[in-house]
Amino acid sequence: MSKPFDMALFLSGVLAGSKSTQKRHLRQAQIMQAAIQRRWHQDNPWTWKLKHVRWFLTKHLQHHSDASQYYYRLTASLIWRRMNEIGENQVHLLFLR
């Protein structure tokens, strides 16, 4: 049996700002992780692809406010930055609808 993925440890290198901002990013990352796990059976960000995150941001959050969607996109950009799978100039792909 494997341990659950520790999102706090994963994001610890890229989290900045106030403690409340860090907690919000961590909470939102855990919500993203749970939703992607249920839908795509991918249990940690190392196995996620761009399509998984774009599904979360477009379909899963479609009934959330624009402000909530914006903050989730910021959290998603932190996750992608941590993974270094896309360059800094490609983070804008997460913001496309």
Structural features, described:
58% of the residues lie in helices and 0% in strands. It has 97 residues and is an all-alpha fold. The protein has one domain.
Question: What does the radius of gyration come to?
Answer: 13 Å
The biggest sheet amounts to:
none
Helix content: 55-70%
In whole angstroms, how far apart are the ends? 38 Å
The proportion of residues in beta strands is: under 5%
Which word captures the global form? globular
Count up the helices: 4
Number of strands: 0
Give the mean pLDDT.
88
Low-confidence stretches: none
**Helical/strand content category:** mainly alpha
**Helix-strand string:** HHHH
Q: Total domains, how many?
A: 1
Overview features:
mainly alpha; 97 residues; 0% strand; single chain; 58% helix
Question: What's the arrangement of secondary structure elements?
Answer:
Blueprint: H1 7-11, H2 19-40, H3 50-60, H4 66-83
Helix pairs in contact: 2-3, 2-4
Could you provide a short overview of the structure?
By secondary structure, the chain is an all-alpha fold. Helices cover 58% and strands 0% of the residues. The chain has one domain.
